[in-house]
Amino acid sequence: xxxxxxxxxxxxxxxxxxxxxxxxxxxxxxxxxxxxxxxxxxxxxxxxxxxxxxxxxxxxxxxxxxxxxxxxxxxxxxxxxxxxxxxxxxxxxxxxx
Length: 97
Prior knowledge:
Number of strands: 2
Distance between the termini: 53 Å
Helix content: 40-55%
């Protein structure tokens, strides 16, 4: 029903439009956050906490070096390596299809 009313009322500068916008703004407002067990309510501190969170989330983490040889997988022979690197033949394409 509300969607029908929004379509009917539209974006006109009506009382209904302003009520909907005000309610949405209040619903989306972040008034407090709990960070590391502490509740933050000061707007400037909230801003710092949010920025810090997303900086930590999206900064590149130092990757540990990974050695595939440590997995204990069998190594390919020279013949197997050459076969993998060889161009695909028409016969192989026909068999796959």
